[in-house]
Amino acid sequence: MQPNTRLRMTTQRQVILDELKKLKSHPTAGELCQIVRRRLPRISLGTVYRNLEILSRQGIIQKLDVGGTEMRFDGTTDNHYHLRCLNCGKVADVDMEVIADLERKVDGAAGYQVFAHRLEFMGFCPECRQSVTSH
Questions:
Q1: Co-location of 71 and 83 in the same domain
Q2: CA 18, CA 13: separation in Å to the nearest integer?
Q3: pTM of the model
Q4: What is the rounded distance in angstroms from the CA atom of residue 132 to the CA atom of residue 135?
Q5: Half-sphere exposure of residue 24: CA atoms within 13 angstroms, side-chain side
Q6: 132 exposed, middle or buried (CB, 10 Å; 0-12, 13-18, 19+)?
Q7: Crossing angle of helices 45-57 and 29-36, rounded to 10°
Q8: Separation between Cα atoms, residue 19 and residue 32, nearest integer Å
Q9: Among 29, 44, 102, 129, who pairs with 49 as Cys (CB 3.0-4.6 Å)?
């Protein structure tokens, strides 16, 4: 989807974007709302969610639909991979190079015209891994 260069950056939208870009935790709308309320005490969850949807549609942020959990949001839009904890649902970035020719390989194997890909790894985060192995 082509970003709309005419998107009006309201104060609320800018604060939401600023706070999201500070985080690496890929928060839910509710989690981000609590953080944004430190700067905008009267902002509603509905306003935060609506603005996250707008920013996502414009390609300014990423909306992460991670398997069966609440929608999460990422302020980093460049192509990168994620890890999701199967126990607590936490999502983290994977610090690795994007597999450069993966899209071309899939395109050739499936006959689709591939433009992008998302890759999610699943396992246990360090905290959950420690609690799972200590029992």
A1: no
A2: 9
A3: 0.77
A4: 6
A5: 8
A6: exposed
A7: 110
A8: 8
A9: 29
Number of H helices, E strands in the chain: 5, 5
Domain limits at 2?
Answer: 1-75
Which CATH number does the domain housing residue 114 bear?
3.30.1490.190
Structure tokens at 33: 């709302």
Neighbours of 99 (CB within 10 A): 12
Return the residue matching tokens 């499936």. 110
Q: Which residue has the tokens 């839910």?
A: 28
Interval 46-104: pLDDT, tens: 999 999 999 999 999 999 887 667 899 999 888 889 998 988 888 889 988 888 788 88
| Token reading at 39 | 């700067």
